[in-house]
Amino acid sequence: MQLATWNVNSIRARVDRVVAWLERTRVDVLALQETKCRDDQFPYLPFEAAGYEVAHVGTSQWNGVAIASKVGIDDVVVGFPGQPGFGDDGAAEARALGATCGGVRLWSLYVPNGRDLADPHYAYKLEWLAALRTTAAGWLEADPAAQIALAGDWNIAPLDTDVWDMAAFEGATHVSPAERAAFAAFADVGFADPVRDLVPGMFTYWDYKQLRFPRNEGMRIDFALTSPALRERVVGARIERNERKGKAPSDHVPVVLELAD
DNA sequence: ATGGTAGTGTTACTA
Questions:
Q1: pLDDT over threshold 90, residue A89
Q2: How far apart are CA A41 and CA A123, in angstroms?
């Protein structure tokens, strides 16, 4: 089974590319982020025609997460327990969606960007990550054998080598010690990144601006963290850099886990 | 030179 995550930066702008990629790669389950649409605007039909069921949550042109699966999609949950909100109404944003697909409990996650170290969005980001860690740790305590994937755009570059030039990130988000500690805290409770060792030295995101992709000035910020039982099933991984090429690409590329049956 | 692109939706905001 193949399980993937991909920040598509608008599903309506990218649907043909995403479905063509699914049909070409035969990926079984895909977590999507930044769909940028309401539920009633999601292009379900092309996915269904390709054999994928879709669960989606989106409330506006911002955020939006989905899961597409051709191995079933059960027990769909919008938001994780304890997920903090943001904004005047303090409502939870469309940044987390859980579903069980082919025996794997998959969460499609779009971690808040943070914007600036002094911005309230940054405190929100850290709060959001801490709450997710607490909740995810509870899932493993309840069932140590659970097969769980925390997959998405984490908006954190855990290592200095996960950005093209640390000097360009002086005082910026994505690389701060607090963000990196928040990310490392998931490993402390059992959620590992199985991709880094299999695919070292590759980015998952390149900004549209400033010729970042031609210059390979990117960031590694998209991850599929696995619970111990799911980690045991990982037999391969790839980062589909070619998806940043061609006509109308997303600024992120898919990260794929290959799982033993 | 303190910018540059892209998407959604509007005279801006997010990334």
A1: no
A2: 31
Looking across all nucleic acid strands, the nucleotide with the smallest C1' to CA distance from residue A115 is B15
**Nearest nt to A208, CA vs C1'?**
B5
Q: pLDDT at residue A149 above 90?
A: yes
Nearest residue (CA) to C1' of B7: A10
Question: pLDDT value at position A138?
Answer: 98
Q: Name the packing angle between helices A120-142 and A177-188 (round to 10°).
A: 10
Find the mean pLDDT for residues A185-205.
Answer: 98
As ranges, strand B nucleotides with an atom below 7 A of a protein CB are 4-9, 14-15
Cβ pair A155, A115 in contact under 8 A: no
Confidence of residue A88 (pLDDT cuts 50, 70, 90): confident
The answer to whether the C-beta of A112 is closer than 7 A to strand B is yes
Q: Name the nearest CA neighbour of A256 among A232, A231, A223.
A: A223
Residue A208 contacts strand B, CB under 7 A: yes
* All structural domains of chain A with their residue ranges: 2-259
Please report, rounded to whole angstroms, the spatial distance between the CA atom of protein residue A208 and the C1' atom of nucleotide B3. 14
Fold classification of A2-259 is Deoxyribonuclease I; Chain A (3.60.10)
